[in-house]
Amino acid sequence: MASNEEILAGLAEIVNEETGLAPESVEMDKSFTDDLDIDSISMMTIVVNAEEKFGVRIPDEEVKNLKTVGDAVSFIASAQA
Amino acid sequence: MPRKVVITGLGATTPIGGDVPTMWANALKGVSGARTIEADWVKEYDLPVTFAAQVSTPASEVLTRVEAKRMDPSTQFAVVAAREAWRDSGLEDIDHDRLAVSFATGIGGVWTLLDAWDTLKAKGHRRVLPMTVPMLMPNGPAAAVSLDLGARAGAHTPVSACASGTEALHQGLELIRSGKADVVMCGGAEAAIHPMPIAAFASMHALSRRNDEPERASRPYDVDRDGFVMGEGAGALVIEAEEHALARGARIYGELAGTSVTADAYHITAPDPGGLGATRALKAALFDARVQPSDVVHVNAHATSTPVGDKPEYVALKTALGKHVDNVAVSATKSQTGHLLGASGAVEAVMTVLAVYERTLPVTINLENQDPEIPLDVVTSERTLPAGDIVALSNSFGFGGHNAVIVIKNV
Predict the structure, then answer these.
(1) Is residue B236 domain-shared with residue B310, that is, in the same domain?
(2) Which in B116, B180, B338, B359 has the greatest CB count within 10 A?
């Protein structure tokens, strides 16, 4: 089980790989769409890569609730618990 | 008179050069782009053909990592070549509603398609990423180029196997002549050096098996030719209505004077042995360009180096040009680049345009014993053209009986 910091770092790596955004710009309060300009196709790619990295399942109906990076970190943390 | 159309920008990424200046310098010198494939899958599948002509500069060295990640290799090559052609054209502030794309491919995103299939089998449907669809679609290269340039007068994708790249110029010319566009980014891209296409082409005995001498394998017109060499890459040409080019003081390489496309309706893969479809294409292209057979100075031949393919093209040239065929200097540049399938016509169009513009012909390598049944004047060492008007042709033929010809004139 990973800590929130570890999940954030791992997520930042995935976002960087997909979009080229600097990992340090991926912060807990950032909105995927409004701040990071991530479109739905990139979001699905990030979700699938996060599932593999953290060994969790993020259902499609849950993805729309992951508005900020923090939402995703919390979801992954609770799914791992 | 139809609108006159000129060529104002050139781009390429090929096995003998990652840009036009490098490719052209090598094409005049005569080098082979064929090498043994350094990938585990050659041994893994025990492929009967272990070499190919891969691009000399990987697209990953030109594009950003994120750009490359969202594109199939075929689209990566298209974008690399189109950006070079666009820069070369000097076009800047134009009406993007009058800018079109005609970018061909023979196969499309075959790497993406087969990688996704492998992922589905190994890891399940969840791991098949959403970018898979736009990356595998054959209109991917045209769409990516349209997006990159902001070309809004339509993005077209001619698909006619190995005639595709030449057909892209045919469609581009029609778009300008019909008044639907003023500028068209034409080209072709292919990235099919993957074990499955190699297995499939090898299965139809289309590929050379000269595994111990890849550099000598592509040998059009030679008696010992035994098949083509798989190539990859892209070529791109900016074509433009003459009045549009003149108004902005553009450098003009030459005129795209005429084109034609015909179908053999003879056999799905074998060329018509009498070259009838190709002959009709040659005659129609000359008619379209309003030139006579005796005006033709140079031909960039399709000449893939297959035992059965090279001769019907000669027969067609002889029928279309008559006795004048003996006076025509023929270059078979696939001897150097390998066969770029749907991109070959576009790369060869770039070479033909440069031959006309610089009055210098690219060379044919590996011609050691010319097939006596193909007595063409083949250019085997650098040759310059004398002053005077030049009419040059570039031919492409594809499985399915597709024949496409373009006519380039000096300006």
Answers:
(1) no
(2) B338
Please, which residues bridge with residue B185 across strands? Answer: B101, B238
B113 and B234 assigned to the same domain: yes
Same domain (yes/no): B226, B348: no
3-state secondary structure B93-104: CCCHHHEEEEEE
Residue B379 to residue B356: CA distance in whole angstroms: 15
B334 in the same domain as B278: yes
* CB contact (8 A) between residue B131 and residue A48: no
What are the residue ranges in chain B where pLDDT is below 70? none
Domain membership flag for residue B252: no
> Do residues B47 and B22 share a domain?
yes
Longest dimension (CA), chain B: 64
Does residue B253 form part of some domain?
A: no
In this structure, which amino acid lies at residue A45? Answer: T
Residues B368, B226 share a domain: no
- For the question of residue B402 being annotated catalytic, the response is no
Residue B195 CB neighbours (<10 A) = 16
Quick: pLDDT tens for B284-324.
999 999 999 999 999 999 999 999 999 999 999 999 999 99
- Residue B357's domain comprises 258-409
Q: Give catalytic status of residue B162 as yes or no.
A: yes
B267 is catalytic: no
* Predicted local confidence at residue B317, as pLDDT: 98
Grouping H, G, I as helix, E, B as strand and the rest as coil, residue B357 is helix
DSSP code of residue B410: -
Q: Is B126 on the interface with A (CB under 8 A)?
A: yes
Q: Beta strands B296-300 and B391-398: pairing type?
A: parallel
Predicted local distance difference test score (pLDDT) of residue B273: 83
CATH number for the domain spanning B113: value is 3.40.47.10
Q: Are residues B193 and B295 in the same domain?
A: no
CA distance A27 to chain B (A): 20
Long-range contacts of B241-246 (CB under 8 A, 24+ apart): B241/B3, B241/B4, B241/B5, B241/B6, B241/B176, B241/B182, B241/B183, B242/B3, B242/B4, B242/B5, B242/B6, B243/B3, B243/B4, B244/B182, B244/B183, B245/B6, B245/B8
Q: Provide the 3-class DSSP secondary structure of residue B303.
A: coil
B213 lies in the same domain as B279:
no
